[in-house]
Amino acid sequence: MADEVQNVEGAPEAAPTEGQAPRRGRGGGGGRDGGRGREGGGRGRRDDRRPRDEEGGEELIEKLVHINRVSKTVKGGKRFGFAALVVVGDGKGRAGFGHGKAREVPEAISKATAAAKKSMIRVPLRDGRTLHHDGLGHFGAGMVTLRSAPAGTGIIAGGPMRAVFESLGVADVVTKSNGTSNPYNMIRATFEALGEQTSPKSVAQRRGKKVSDLIKRSGVSDRAAEAEAAAVTE
After folding, report:
1. Quick check: is 49 in a domain?
2. 122 and 204 within one domain
3. Spatial distance between the Cα atoms of 137 and 120, rounded to a whole number of angstroms
4. Nearest CA among 54, 154, 217, 103 for reference residue 228
5. Do 99 and 11 share a structural domain?
6. pLDDT, tens only, 154-210
């Protein structure tokens, strides 16, 4: 009888032990460990995507230049709309601008950013910091003048023009804006001047000569011309 009582009393104790073990296994291995495994895998995939985006050149500098709010009076009140002007660039000689309109500010900015990415242009830079030569741009009532500058000058520009050069990657430039202060016309005039920029390498290819031959005409010695031509990368 003592043995039977021990067996009967031991049976209920063994049943909960067997029932609890699978619950701990599912909670520890399937729920927690499995959840951490999936989260870890997800974080790994996101980290892998970031370098590819940077290598693919998709990381762009976005500058919001201007937001204009307009209102239309309708029956029952006023209906507001927003227009955004955005400049984007990669900081390595490519930049573009675009504008977008929407009922909400974030949507207008997203439209302008998408339009700016589609209209990006390549601008040759000297030493990766300034323009190769002076330029003049004109659009509507706006007129801008761009001048190359020595190292350490900085970006001497105001308003919308500064956003263009910051996104373009220019470190030294001197600008002057005459006429209207409308940001749309100033941006268009600036990009017209940037579109006329040429590099010594492109001019030499167009004329069928070497870069050193073009530099020699400015009174530079042969060695200095060859060294300067070798330093030209764009």
Report:
1. no
2. no
3. 17
4. 217
5. no
6. 999 988 899 999 999 999 999 999 998 899 999 999 999 999 988 877 777 777 777
Going edge to edge, which strands form the sheet with 94-102? 61-74, 77-89, 94-102, 121-122
Q: Is residue 191 domain-shared with residue 211, that is, in the same domain?
A: no
The token duo for 32 is 């927690």
Report the domain count for the chain. Answer: 3
Total residue length of the chain: 234
Question: Nearest CA to 67 among 81, 79, 55?
Answer: 81
Structure tokens at 42: 């997800």
Quote the tokens at residue 27.
Answer: 């909670």
Contacts of 26 (CB under 8 A, 6+ apart): none
- Which residue segment(s) compose the domain that 73 sits in? 61-195
What pTM did the predictor assign?
Answer: 0.66
Residues 106 and 170 reside in one and the same domain: yes
